[in-house]
Amino acid sequence: MTRTVVIGLGNDYRGDDGAGLAVARLLRDLGPDMSGAAIENGGDPAELIEAWTGADVAIVIDAARSGDPPGIVRRFRGTPCLAHGGSSTHALSLADAVELARSLDRMPGELIVYTVEGADFALGAGLSEAVSSAAWNIARTILRDAR
Predict the structure, then answer these.
(1) Could you state, in order of their start, the residue ranges of all structural domains in the chain?
(2) Cα gap 74→17, rounded to integer Å
(3) Contact criterion met (CB below 8 Å) for 10 and 42
(4) pLDDT tens digits along 34-69
């Protein structure tokens, strides 16, 4: 049996940076079979690496800030899309966590990354309408693919 873990990255207090967390919550609400597999992570690379260690497939969802229109979703296999440091709102970027996991030989069998282009990362703001809609679409896609 394939062990899949879904990890939503983000911060509820930084507007659209909560996109990954929203997807993890939606998955737990929409798919009872996902209750143990959908994990929230506030950007701690050690917890991220621990969560995907031993998984056959790890799906990570995070907000992006590339200048594209809000709500644009991208899906990547592996990490060719990830830039180190820079625009991440976390202490270490996802790319930094991947690099650390590789050096520790703690990568999942397959890594799938969804990014959601954010609009507003201000303190205290909730998800924008575009990012909220994108979170729903990602959750439905993950549930469909899991079945």
Answers:
(1) 4-146
(2) 15
(3) yes
(4) 666 899 999 889 999 999 999 999 999 999 998 899
Structure tokens at 63: 């907000």
Fold topology of 4-146:
Rossmann fold (3.40.50)
Number of C-beta neighbours around residue 25 at 10 A: 16
Q: H/E element holding 135?
A: helix 129-146
Which amino acid is residue 118, in one-letter code?
Answer: G
- DSSP calls for 103-120: HTT---SEEEEEEEE-S-
Burial (0-12, 13-18, 19+ Cβ within 10 Å), 122: exposed
Query: HEC states along the chain?
Result: CCCEEEEEECCCCCHHHHHHHHHHHHHHHHCHHHCCCEEEECCCHHHHHHHHCCCCEEEEEEEECCCCCCCCEEEEECCCCCCCCCCCCCCCCHHHHHHHHHHCCCCCCEEEEEEEECCCCCCCCCCCHHHHHHHHHHHHHHHHHHC
pLDDT band at 2 (very low <50, low <70, confident <90, very high): confident
